[in-house]
Design brief:
The structure holds 2 protein chains of 2 kinds.
Chain A: E1 8-13, H1 17-28, E2 34-38, E3 47-51, H2 53-65, E4 69-74, H3 77-92
Antiparallel strand pairs in A: 1-3, 1-4, 2-3
Chain B: H1 16-29, E1 34-41, E2 47-53, E3 62-67, H2 74-90, H3 95-103, E4 105-109, H4 114-122, H5 175-187, E5 190-198, E6 202-205, H6 217-235, E7 240-243, H7 244-247, H8 255-261, E8 266-272, H9 287-307
Parallel strand pairs in B: 3-4, 3-5, 5-8, 6-7
Antiparallel strand pairs in B: 1-2, 2-4, 6-8
The chains are: A alpha+beta, B alpha/beta.
Chain lengths: ~90, ~300
């Protein structure tokens, strides 16, 4: 089973086309292990990005260095998954 | 295992086995309305089931609904279960549902991608694709919503098997997609296709593979406007609407573009609610609110298809 301990989901707002392009570049970088939950589409839509714990620092440095506005949408993905599992167990009982 | 419809917990997420058992119970509870068809087998040989809601007649005009083509979108599947139950319960009570089913059939594929769905339950909750092997690649799976023969292989899909939007080796390469294609072609009288996803709060229609407006653009945008307005009236959830290409981005090889290009005029796709906090991990206590608010929008499209025969 794949665990997601320490993974975060970042909600990013691109301020201009240049930032949109940079997000698309990020999308192409397989080694960073990012998963776009909401893809960079247009400036009005937030981009949600799941980032593995091991890539978190690199991705945040990337975002900071290009002055992206972002917030942490999910602090720890695994915590939510554990909660989801507990909820299903409760329901089944 | 759930033992009866009355104890089934619609406010919880369920495994594939639980959902397939529930389908059988729904059929047992509504034998004169609901039946279960198998339209094919998945890559891992799981049955692809469709619930048929019909009050009789032969080859009536039909509405196709599907949920769960992207398995990690659990809220979509859960909404599908609630909705199928609602259709069965409201026949004979709700005048719109009754009118629809007195003239049309509804086909509902609740688990469009069972292999992926099972995989989200035991191996990777975030899995989006099918589970087919890709020759020459270590990466598994194809995005079934890029695998349709509608601008196949173009913008918004990827030729890289490791990408989440990998379009597959050829159009309809995925058994899960081919089964629907064959079913809709074989039926020949499907008037509406509604393919449900999550979580961007959108109601979209063709095209995704080109920016040219569809021939029926005006009618579809007016219908979409009404549907999202009726949805918002329930809990105030705001949806945006329009063609896929103009509203989000160019996306080639999608379900609704294929349906539209194959003569299904009322082809829509929904992106269900997002609280802005959970994405694909929407807590189960939001299943019923999500399904409840989605219902009037679905009904609007289905009633429109009923009232505007073509």
């Amino acid at each position: 089973e794949q665990l997601f301990v320490g993974d975060q989901v970042l909600r990013i707002i691109a301020n201009d086309e240049e930032q949109m392009t940079l997000l698309r570049v990020l999308e192409e970088q397989a080694e960073l292990q990012v998963d776009f939950w909401r893809h960079p589409t247009n400036l009005n839509h937030p981009v949600d990005l799941q980032v593995s714990f091991s890539s978190l620092q690199a991705v945040k440095i990337f975002l900071d260095s290009y002055s992206f506005s972002y917030s942490i949408m999910i602090e720890d993905v695994q915590e939510l998954l554990d909660e989801e599992k507990k909820s299903m167990m409760r329901s089944r009982r | 295992r759930e033992r009866s419809i009355s104890t089934f917990d619609f406010a919880s997420y369920h495994t594939l086995d639980e959902i397939y058992d529930w389908m059988d119970m729904l059929v047992e509870d509504h034998p004169n309305l609901v039946s279960k068809l198998q339209i094919g087998q998945s890559y891992e040989n799981r049955p692809l089931y469709v619930l048929k809601f019909s009050t009789g007649g032969s080859n009536r005009p039909a509405i196709w609904l599907d949920t769960g083509i992207h398995p990690r979108e659990w809220i979509t599947t859960a909404t599908g279960i609630w909705t199928a139950n609602k259709i069965a319960e409201e026949y004979g009570h709700d005048p719109s549902v009754t009118a629809i089913l007195d003239s049309m059939d509804i086909f509902f594929e609740i688990i469009t991608n069972p292999d992926g769905f099972v995989y989200t339950h035991h191996s990777n909750r975030m899995w989006r694709k099918t589970r087919s092997m890709n020759a020459g690649s270590r990466c598994v799976g194809v995005d079934p919503n890029r695998n349709w023969d509608a601008g196949f292989g173009g913008a918004g899909s990827s030729s890289n098997p490791c990408s989440e939007t990998y379009h597959g080796p050829h159009a309809h390469s995925e058994r899960e997609v081919k089964a629907i294609v064959d079913f809709i072609h074989g039926h020949g009288n499907v008037k509406s296709v509604i393919s449900i996803h999550s979580y961007s709060q959108m109601l979209l229609f063709p095209y995704g593979y080109k920016t040219t407006p569809a021939d029926d653009y005006q009618e579809m945008i007016e219908l979409a406007k009404k549907a999202v307005s009726d949805l918002a009236a329930v809990y105030g959830t705001k949806y945006i609407y329009g063609s896929v290409a103009n509203t989000i981005y160019m996306a080639c090889g999608t379900t609704i573009d294929w349906a539209y290009d194959n003569g299904v005029k009322y082809s829509f796709t929904l992106e269900l609610r997002d609280t802005g906090r959970y994405g694909f991990l929407l807590p189960s206590n939001q299943i019923i609110p999500t399904a409840t608010e989605t219902w009037p929008a679905l009904l609007d499209i289905m009633v429109h298809a009923l009232e505007h025969p073509y």
